[in-house]
Amino acid sequence: MDVDHVSERTPRWGLGDAAIGLLIGWVAAPLLIGLWAGATGTPANRTTLGLLAVGEAALWVGLLGAPLVASKRKGAGDLGQDFGFAFRWSDALVGLPIGVVCQLLLVPLIYLPFQHLVSKQDLEAPVRKVTDSAHGAGFIALTIVVVVGAPIVEELFFRGLVLRSLQRRFGDVWAVAGSALLFGLAHFELLQLPALVALGVILGVMAVANKRLGPSIFAHAGFNLVTMIAFALQR
């Protein structure tokens, strides 16, 4: 067996690449938001669709750029082979219902013991702040970003690069737990943290069980879609 040939196929990407991606996203987002606010004269305490778009695009530079660069420079150069970025026709049929059930049943169950301490309005506040800034075509564009863009980018990063990096070192259980915790913490929402971590665990289990990201991407999309539909109906 050609040892050199085998070593060339061994992925060299890992948690360092994920850390760099997060750092780039976290630094770029507030920086570009500040520049955009200054250029447009938008008050710092006001949420607008433009600020949201700039912030999300900056964050995605890190979250999407990290697996793309890692795969090209340190892996097989194929997102499917490196991170399981692949789909089957049945992924939507499996993933979407799981995401919907998580939003409608899992989240309320998680907060049931704390219903006297945490209100539904408190839990909805971060998302409502975002959706209230978009109307008409802007709301449609925001929905596409939340339901299509975010699941793809976040699953490729958290259940692709992060989970598989942890998986190589610590095994499936710690990989699922670690990627779920990082997924929750990365949203910087303390009240929503338990639900986000629980969702991350389910998405991680799906990614490990299926060895590809298709089902978890659709589950993530279904989870977010329920939220957007609910806010659309409240308008």
Keywords, separated by commas or semicolons:
10 helices, mainly alpha, 0% strand, 235 residues
DSSP helix fraction: over 70%
Radius of gyration over C-alpha positions, nearest whole angstrom: 19 Å
Overall structural class, as computed from helix and strand content, comes to: mainly alpha
What is the number of helices? Answer: 10
What do the pLDDT scores average to? 91
Report how far the terminal alpha carbons are from each other: 65 Å
Strand content: under 5%
Largest sheet: none
Elements, N to C (H/E) = HHHHHHHHHH
Low-pLDDT regions: 1-7
Q: What would you call the shape?
A: globular
Domains (count): 1
Query: How many strands?
Result: 0
Kindly summarize this structure in a few lines.
By secondary structure, the chain is mainly alpha-helical. The chain has helices spanning 3-9, 15-40, 49-74, 79-83, 91-111, 120-131, 137-170, 172-185, 193-210, 214-233.
